[in-house]
Amino acid sequence: MSAPAEDARRVFAETFGGDEPHIAVFAPGRVNLIGEHTDYNGGFVLPMALPLITVTVGSPRDDGKICIVTTAQGADEPHKVEFETPSVDRPLTPGTPKWANYVKGVIQHYRAGPIPGFNAVIATSVPLGGGLSSSASLEVASYTFMQQLCQDDGDLVQKALACQKAEHTFAGVPCGIMDQFISVMGREGHALLIDCRSLEVKPLPLKDPKLSVLITNSNVRHELTGSEYPTRRKQCEEAAKALGKLTLRDASMEDLEAKKENLSEVCYRRARHVISEIERTTKAAEALENGNYQLFGKLMVESHNSLRDDYEVSCPELDELVSIAVEIPGVYGSRMTGGGFGGCTVTLLETSVAERTKQHIQEKFRGSPTFYITKPSAGSGVLPK
Ligand code: GAF
Predict the structure, then answer these.
(1) 76 backbone dihedrals φ, ψ, rounded to 5°
(2) How many Å apart are CA 146 and CA 117, to the nearest integer?
(3) 8 Å CB contact between 103 and 85
(4) Residue 279 needs a FRET pair 20 to 30 A away by CA distance; which of 9, 37, 111, 354 works?
(5) Best mutation site among 178, 228, 233, 274 for ligand 1, i.e. most ligand atoms within 8 A of its Cβ?
(6) Closest approach atom of ligand 1 to CA 38
């Protein structure tokens, strides 16, 4: 059993006593290999699900009450919440603690009809605020729990969309679809090329034992609920409008150059990042399919530079981590991953240099990094008994 599953079962027994929990589900965090800040522009992304997971265990209760405990390190207090199941006259609303909003949002948007009460414990190995989608994994684990509780199956795309809606309405973050989508759809041994306009998915094998994915957490806290993310989103919408397009996915570099005068300097740079990043992502997917890791790595570094200079969502710690990583021969490329302003970098490298690269970063980086050498893993599901 995974560490968070053991943790959740132990705390369930301590808190609620009695029988083993009837339901035990999980949903993974993710790392995005390339395609950053493209999802809400209808573009392409290339994430993979991680073996870092959020687990929810629990059992129904028959008095219409819901009691949830989290064991997550860094979650705001209190770590236990109790409330009535929602009804039409008494919907759930966001409040404090913040961690519970992700769960409440999913419960509220789960379905129109009544739901049973339940006791549940949440545990996670996804670092909170690390840019590895701790929020989406909590939403998707909560939704998977609700499906088990209500014995519903349901469509996978609808599941991802409902979790995204929960984040918009209960956490106030106007996120794209990438994080919830990969947490639902992730596939072992594969990264997924997701077209965020059509929601079509192409699984790309990522199983070469000579190739590794190293995640380095800067441990600088990333806060997506700040104003920066919504501001970027608005600037992209403004740029698309000035170019006469529905989204930036519909615009080319030629369109951008031809209508440069219609855009503010900032919106021009934001659009230049998005349009070039969408192009880099499709090229990178092709490179991965052809085993051209050199090209993939080069595109990763270009992506990082564009996020740093044009999109302005990097920070000195992430820039430093990327520069240090690419010094090691055998490292193909490195970049910040996720929303930015802290969190993690992702590095593609030869397996044989993974330990050396970690050591090199440890020695040269000014902060206290944490490392994960990781493999593409499965999307959300039920845990074995
Ligand atoms: C965050 C968001 F939640 C995603 O939707 C995506 O926009 C990402 O930042 C940036 O690529 O993780």
Answers:
(1) -75, 155
(2) 10
(3) no
(4) 354
(5) 178
(6) 11
CB 173 within 8 A of CB 201: no
- Cross-strand bridge partners of residue 160: none
* Ligand 1 atom with minimal separation from the 39 CA: 7
Q: Which amino acid is at 85?
A: T
Tokens, residue 315: 């920070």
pLDDT at 265: 98
Q: What phi, psi does 32 have (nearest 5°)?
A: -100, 120
What are the C-alpha distances in Å from 97 to residues 59, 82, 104?
22, 11, 11
Q: How far apart (Å, rounded) are the C-alpha atoms in residues 377 and 52?
A: 9
CA atoms within 13 A on the CB side of 198: 7
Specify which residues 382 forms β-bridges with. Answer: 25
Which of 30, 31, 36, 39 has most ligand 1 atoms within 8 Å of its beta carbon, as the pocket-test mutant? 39
Residues identified as active-site: 179
The tokens describing 4, both together, are: 């968070």
Give CA–CA dist 230/138, Å, rounded.
21
Chain segment 233-252, per-residue pLDDT in tens = 999 999 999 999 999 999 99
Q: Is residue 153 a contact partner of residue 143, using CB atoms and an 8 Å limit?
A: no
Distance of alpha carbon 184 from alpha carbon 159, whole angstroms: 8
Per the prediction, the chain carries an average pLDDT of: 96
Dist CA 370 CA 257 (whole Å): 41
State the closest ligand 1 atom to the C-alpha of 131, by its place in the atom list counted from 1: 12
Question: 370 forms bridges with which residues in the sheet?
Answer: 217
Length of the chain: 385
Q: What is the mean pLDDT of residues 343-353?
A: 97
Please name which of 244, 263, 303 lies closest in space to residue 279, comparing C-alpha atoms. 303
pLDDT tens column, 98-112: 999 999 999 999 987
The three-class DSSP label of residue 91 is: coil
Distance from residue 131's CA to the centre of ligand 1 (Å): 9
Tokens 């490195």 belong to 334
